[in-house]
Design brief:
352 residues; mainly alpha; ABC transporter involved in vitamin B12 uptake, BtuC; 14 helices; globular
């Protein structure tokens, strides 16, 4: 008696569907954590708010009224939390792109000296112009100036004419040299600065969110660049794994390098001009997300954006409450958290 054969289950489609469901659940969970971080930032401070007060203050703000202290506190804290979220997300996305460009999971958005250029521009505006409105613009111009110098010096490699094994170290070395020169100029500016402006200059260099405001331009840039690079996620995956053979796989490696460089430079310049040099966000967050979800940039990019924003919001909440009523620069908190995390990640890489 013949045994009827059973149809084979379509394992690959089921596996793909299972992975998509898993990634969707991860993104939803990370989105909820991002929302929770903003709520926690609104509750925490030298004067804490309860959940009932937060709800009442939210209704007051929604109706355009600011009649109680809780509403005023919520207005200030929510504005600062949203600024921290978009800056953290911008730095984290810049870190993902920089690590893909240099093919190094421990690369940093500031590694090419963009932060040094922004620091030179911002401190020059503080010292010689004394106008706060021009500080952000000067920092942005300084960062883009360094990016232009690096692009001109590494133009051949950006065209894809050189081997990726040689172009990435050359670009990295050029950035380190430019960053050293910018550091020397920053030291000179600090040494000749008068006492009344020195404190503000130092706070800006460490990274501070106390004077930031949520800007539609920053949000629009984050959404625009994020959408653009997410559409190129497959090409980034190919370039990260097979950079020297990417052209045979249908990827224009030269154009992709230019895209990654300019997007990372624009994001870093925007973040640094808004809040100063906040370190470790673009270094540890993308790498931590790579531990959690792997190296597929289709999921790594949105996870890094949400994680980076949440991390900086929580770090800023700690900066406001650790020694309340005094406030610490948020760059101090990110450094205190980032150093041990980075050492752990580095030790993990050595072992594996």
């Amino acid at each position: 008696m013949a045994i009827p054969s059973l149809p084979l289950l379509p394992l690959p489609p089921l596996r793909q569907k299972s992975e998509k469901t898993h990634y969707a659940s991860l993104l939803c969970g990370m989105g909820l954590l991002a929302l929770a971080s903003i709520i926690v930032a609104c509750l925490m401070g030298s004067v804490s708010l309860s959940l009932s007060e937060l709800w009442q203050a939210t209704q007051e703000l929604f109706h355009g009224r600011s009649t109680i202290l809780a509403t005023s506190l919520l207005d200030l804290r929510l504005s600062r939390a949203l600024s921290g979220f978009v800056i953290g997300a911008t730095l984290s996305l810049s870190g993902v792109l920089m690590q893909a460009l240099l093919r190094n999971p421990l690369a940093d958005p500031y590694v090419l000296g963009l932060s040094g250029g922004a620091s030179v521009g911002a401190l020059s505006a503080m010292l010689f112009l004394g106008m706060g409105a021009l500080v952000d613009m000067a920092a942005f111009v300084g960062a883009l100036t360094v990016a232009t110098i690096l692009f001109v010096l590494a133009y051949r490699d950006f065209r894809g004419s050189g081997s990726s094994e040689g172009s990435a170290p050359l670009l990295l070395l050029t950035g380190v040299v430019v960053a050293t020169g910018c550091g020397a100029i920053v030291t000179l500016l600090l040494s000749i600065a008068p006492d009344w402006s020195l404190r503000g200059m130092v706070f800006w260099m460490i990274g501070d969110l106390s004077n930031t405001q949520p800007r539609l331009l920053t949000w629009g840039l984050l959404l625009g660049v994020g959408t653009l690079v997410l559409s190129q996620a497959r090409a980034i995956n190919v370039a990260a794994m097979h950079a020297d053979n990417a052209s045979t796989l249908g990827v224009n490696i030269g154009r992709l390098r230019q895209l990654l460089f300019f997007c990372a430079a624009l994001l870093t310049a925007t973040a640094v001009s808004s809040a100063g040099s906040i370190g470790f966000v673009g270094l540890i967050i993308p790498h931590a997300c790579r531990f959690a979800v792997g190296s597929d940039h289709r999921i790594l990019i949105p996870m890094s954006v949400l994680s980076g924003g949440s991390f900086l919001v929580v770090a800023d909440a700690l900066a406001r409450t650790v020694v309340a009523p005094y406030q610490l620069p948020v760059g101090v908190i990110t450094a205190l958290i980032g150093v041990p995390v980075f050492l752990f990640q580095l030790h993990y890489l050595r072992r594996h």
